[in-house]
Specification:
The two termini are 39 Å apart. Strand 11, helix 5 and strand 12 form a beta-alpha-beta unit. The strands form 7 sheets. The chain has a 5-stranded parallel sheet. A 4-stranded parallel sheet has the order 13-12-11-17. 27% of the residues lie in helices and 23% in strands. The protein has helices at 12-24, 47-52, 65-70, 131-146, 163-178, 207-217, 259-262, 313-331, 375-392; strands at residues 3-8, 30-36, 40-42, 61-63, 73-77, 80-84, 89-92, 96-98, 101-104, 109-110, 151-155, 187-190, 220-223, 228-231, 235-238, 242-245, 248-252, 255-256, 288-290, 343-348, 353-358, 370-374. The chain has 2 domains: 3-108 and 257-339, FAD/NAD(P)-binding domain (3-Layer(bba) Sandwich); 113-254, FAD/NAD(P)-binding domain (3-Layer(bba) Sandwich). By secondary structure, it is of the alpha/beta class.
């Protein structure tokens, strides 16, 4: 009888796990089921481009069912309500899925409620952390172009995904300059980081100096160690207190675990994130793995305002690969290899890109981080998006040498 693997989540972690497992073991030895509430995969790093109007959601997404079927992976479009680890069962609104191995690649829940006034439900603030939010932000940017005014972009205390905030500040600056409206729109950047470019990983080489210089030459004012306390229709309030006028406020929220995981006994920490070992196995439940944003990782250092450890798509794929190889190895009677997480990413600065390579993510590091800027990196970012989507929608493992 084939070993049963259930994967929860259809984004980077879930898809990579499924493709890697199937590459290593055929359907006669391994029965794979992937459960996701969304029928489409979305290339999340491109949501900032959706917000700025240079991409549509259709251009950065595809239906999961066909490529998964091509890899002999059963796709279940269902909403998970809980994990019963003692019974080895994933419970959904439609029924139960028994497993021998479980991989939780559930992603996150945006804790927008941590910042009063951060929408979309209860206030004027915006975030690009999901498809609906990016589309809503796109509409708000269009309004700004017709009714210019001050803008605040940044991240809330406890945020871990800070890179998109930088991208949105630069992309908005570039868009406004092309529309000859930049002189009508003061842009302020606020971040819990102790310095620009910290990004939850303690900085990377000369990225701090590069970002400081880029903000200064673009007339983007910035505040570090800033704690956003409230967003209103006309301002962003910071602890201090300070009030920054704003007709458009874009704030990256802190993240939390998804309810199905957070509510499953013994599975997660108080914030809903899942503890794991170096194989990405749960320390209590040997058959349960977790990868990506769903896992618990401590910050690299203590800061005046909390900044959490980053979890990029590139890192998620490394985790998923390690977990999948360990499952396949255990089926064959041994353990898989482990490795420190590294990070490679390209930051869109509107008119150019910045490439960062950090190995490992946590300092001290074996290699001096590489930081390079130029138009070629922005071209590479666009090319990587298309390459990734081309491979993934055909059921292929995706080359990730560049990262994102």
């Amino acid at each position: 009888m084939a070993v049963r693997v259930v994967i929860v989540g259809g984004s980077f972690g879930g898809l990579t796990t499924a493709y890697e497992l199937r590459h290593r073991l055929g359907p006669d030895r391994l029965a794979i089921t992937l459960i996701a509430r969304d029928p489409r995969f979305t290339f999340v790093p491109s949501l900032t481009w959706v917000a700025m109007g240079s991409r549509s959601v259709e251009q950065i997404s595809f239906d999961l069912a066909e490529p998964l079927a091509a890899r002999h992976v059963t796709f279940a479009r269902e909403i998970v309500t809980g994990i019963e680890t003692e019974r080895h069962v994933v419970v959904t609104e439609q029924g139960e899925h028994p497993y021998d191995f479980l991989v939780l690649a559930t992603g996150h829940r945006s804790a927008n409620e941590a910042v009063p006034g951060l929408g979309p439900g209860d206030g004027p603030g915006h975030s690009p952390m999901s498809v609906p939010e990016a589309q809503e932000l796109r509409s708000a940017v269009r309004t700004l172009l017709g009714q210019p005014g001050p803008v605040v972009v940044g991240a809330a205390p406890g945020a871990s995904c800070i890179g998109p905030a930088y991208e949105l500040a630069f992309e908005l600056d570039h868009l406004l300059r092309r529309r000859k409206l930049r002189h009508l729109v003061p842009i302020s950047f606020v971040t819990p980081e102790p310095f620009l470019g910290h990004m939850g990983m303690g900085g990377a080489g000369k990225i701090r100096q590069l970002l400081e210089g880029a903000f200064e030459e673009r007339d983007i004012t910035y505040r570090t160690s800033a704690a956003v306390t409230e967003i209103t229709d006309s301002a962003v309030a910071l602890a201090g207190p300070h009030l920054l006028p704003s007709v458009l406020s874009i704030i990256i929220p802190p993240l939390a675990g998804v309810p199905a995981v957070a509510g499953s006994a013994g599975l997660a920490n108080p914030k809903g994130f899942i503890p794991v070992d170096s194989h990405y196995r749960h320390p209590r439940f040997d058959s349960v793995y977790a990868v990506g944003v769903a896992i618990a990782l401590p910050p690299v250092d203590e800061t005046a305002v909390p900044v959490n450890f980053p979890k990029t798509g590139h890192m998620t794929e490394q985790m998923a690969t390690i977990a999948a190889r360990d499952i396949a190895a255990r089926i064959d009677g041994h353990e898989g290899a482990v490795a420190e997480l590294s990070a490679r990413c390209v930051l869109d600065m509107g008119d150019r890109g910045v490439y960062m390579s950090v190995d490992p993510v946590r300092p001290p590091r074996n290699r001096i981080p590489r930081v390079s800027q130029g138009h070629q990196w922005l071209l590479m970012k666009h090319l990587f998006e298309r390459t990734y989507l081309w491979h993934a929608r055909r059921g292929r493992r995706v080359p990730t040498t560049l990262g994102w």
